[in-house]
Amino acid sequence: MSSSVYVAGVGAITAIGNNVADNLAAFEREEAGMAEITLINTKLHGQVPVAEVKLSNTELAAITNVSSQLSRTTLLSLIAAKEALNDAGIANLSSLRTGFVSANTVGGMDKSEDFFVEFTKDNSKGKLRNVFDHECGSMTEAVANELGLTDYMTTISTACSSSANAIFYGARLIKNDLLDVVVAGGADSLTKFTLNGFNTLMILDKEFCKPFDDNREGLNLGEGAGYVVLVSEKVARALSKPLYCQLSGYNNSNDAYHQTASSPDGTGSYLAMQGALAKSGLQPSDIDYINLHGTGTPNNDSAEGTAIKRLFDPHYPKMSSTKSFTGHTLGASGGVEAVFSALAIKHGLIYPNLRFETPMKELPFTPEKHYLKDQKINHVLSNSFGFGGNCTSLIFSAI
Amino acid sequence: MKIYIRSAATISAQKTFGDVPFLTEPVEYQETRLKAIEPDYKDYIDPKLIRRMSHIIKMGVATARECLTQAGIEMPGAIITGTAYGCLEDTITFLTRIIELDEEMLPPTAFIQSTHNTVAAQIALMLKCHQYNNTFVHKGLSFESALLDAIMLLKEKEADNILVGGTDEMTDASFTILSRLGQYKRWPLSNLSLFKTKSKGTIGGEGAAFVLITDKPSTDNLAELTAVKTFYKPKSNEDVELRINSFLADNSLNIEDIDLVITGKNGDLKNDAVYETLTHSLFANCSLANYKHLCGEYPTSVSFALWLASNIIKREIVPAIVAENAIKNSSPKKILIYNHYQNNYHSLMLVSAC
């Protein structure tokens, strides 16, 4: 029950790169992934920037040699999960108990949107193949089948904390000795549904987002997928290549304040960070880097910042929101940022918080503005907070 | 560690909610869609909130509250839900408005409440519960995933008094789409005669069922949740039989020790084939019960079966309406639930007298 869980492989696809290496290169160039909307036919075109993965469905499908008719969420998920699994290089995978725990929030909505155009006019119309795989679980199932990870699979959807909870749950499946290897994380594709949803909430920035800046005006939606390969101690010992880190702490708490807004004092965020620290047995001063949830909305950054102040004052670690590069990838963000956290430890990196200029009045700290390498990073705290008050923090630690 | 079901509550197409007789007055429907019988929500939810809540949110929140009341627990140690389809009504409302209003002047409420975690979130909000909160959305494995999460939390000593629920709603649109996909029978029939005709298709249902689970023994507990096991796409019916035998063996039991088997029969020829095979093999001498003629088929319907099994154990009664054959032991001590969803997701649950 008390055994450690290690990260043996990572995979990511986002607006700044189709694989891990490309993502790292974009960080070093300090080059954000946001641009005009190109993939979705929407009236919001030209009004808000988004962080699209720069490949069409046909191009995405070609990478893993699957049908381009699959939901874009599935296509993104498969690419990153496969990269992670290949990266881990577990030789005897078929003899181990393996699982796939994936998260998403939109499922096959990109296809359902097409279906409903016809269906809304006439209920006997609309191509059924566009709605057949609407469910979030269908994305996971398709990828698990493709990768042969079918001893156990499940899907989590807790809004923007979804894939952090998938990693959390995957680690516990190993700790409870139910599985040996779990590929865990999440994926989400950009859809008209989410674009319009966030637009009605008036939290989309018309410019590139400015997380933790006093003049921040909202978030940019993104898309992508990120997965880590979690392995038990026993599997870890048998691997020939070095591990990235271990998952040393985690906590899931609820803000219980409002369906979409965070409480002003960031109660849920505070409880999640504090709980993850307690689980890992670490002190706030042990944390070397915080990968912020940092969406860029006035509400989130204020609540998260207030919670950080309460927990860390007066010694603040370096911190940044990588959403300033990737946009907010919603259900994928916890997975994508877990990958970035593992890479920060392995390569000694701090990612810049792009476009930060003006410190927030209520906070005594500021995020890191520049790409830093050769840092000694032992412990990274990664925050993922979502609608419904769902707050999850993960801590990754060097081995 | 022993795990107990302290309380169980369900809103279903039957009279199952609140202080009611135990399935002695089955409700008959002459259609292929069974709608949940809704209580007066004012007794469970702040009336100011009811108006804005969709069907699934009201069902989920009220069922959770009733489950807590029955357990005598004000604040659960964790809230975990499973839902395959999530908040369909709000999702479809928002989707339809995007199309009909051509992306202009959209009201945000439906979007806000469309996220899959809304039920668990609204329960947390109502209770001001800051504890662990999670939502699983994996097709016919959603409720089982939530249950496994809760069992692990108990074993890890991270939480006690864990509220676990399965919720799914049927809307006009989803019923139309699932009908077009061929899931339901092509003609109206009585749900109470569901198993009498051998034909394609089942009847659609919806509902919410919550259990409160704990590791603390108490005379108030309904039953012990002895074991839960799931498996994906078994190779054959023989493979299913092997897995059930090994599940029983893991719990030092064989099939003769099981007083009642509740299966997920739903009236569809293909779906029921594995149950029919087992009826003539492993389950040949078993007392058998069914439940989907009462609540309809939906991906989290096994939560209704768990409510049913817990109540059968506690009340020491097998309602006549669920019995498939002669029930040998009218107060079963060990119940096996075997359900599968569309032949992909299979689950086994062992529920025992405390």
Brief rundown of the structure:
By secondary structure, chain A is an alpha/beta fold. Chain A has helices spanning 20-29, 57-64, 72-88, 109-121, 136-147, 162-175, 192-200, 233-238, 267-280, 298-312, 323-326, 333-347; strands at residues 5-13, 98-103, 152-156, 181-188, 224-232, 245-254, 289-291, 318-320, 379-385, 390-397.
Walk me through this protein's architecture.
The complex is a heterodimer of chains A (399) and B (354). Chain A has 399 residues and is α/β, with parallel strands linked by helices. Chain A folds into 2 domains: 5-238, 3-Layer(aba) Sandwich (Peroxisomal Thiolase, Chain A, domain 1), CATH 3.40.47; 248-397, 3-Layer(aba) Sandwich (Peroxisomal Thiolase, Chain A, domain 1). Chain A is 34% helix and 17% strand. Chain A has helices spanning 20-29, 57-64, 72-88, 109-121, 136-147, 162-175, 192-200, 233-238, 267-280, 298-312, 323-326, 333-347, and strands spanning 5-13, 98-103, 152-156, 181-188, 224-232, 245-254, 289-291, 318-320, 379-385, 390-397. A 10-stranded mixed β-sheet of chain A has the order 3-2-4-5-1-6-10-9-7-8, sandwiched between helices. In chain A, strand 7 (289-291), helix 10 and strand 8 form a beta-alpha-beta unit. In chain A, helix 2 (57-64) packs parallel to helix 3, helix 3 runs parallel beside helix 5 (136-147) and helix 6 packs across helix 12 (333-347). Chain A is globular, with a radius of gyration of 20 Å. With 354 residues, chain B is of the alpha/beta class. Chain B folds into 2 domains: 4-214, 3-Layer(aba) Sandwich (Peroxisomal Thiolase, Chain A, domain 1); 226-352, Peroxisomal Thiolase, Chain A, domain 1, CATH 3.40.47. A 10-stranded mixed β-sheet of chain B has the order 3-2-4-5-1-6-10-9-7-8, sandwiched between helices. In chain B, helix 2 crosses helix 5. The longest helix of chain B is centred in the N-terminal third of the chain and has 17 residues, at 55-71. Chain B is globular, with a radius of gyration of 19 Å. Chains A and B meet through helix 4, helix 5, strand 3, helix 6 and helix 7 of A and helix 3, helix 5, strand 3, helix 6 and helix 7 of B.
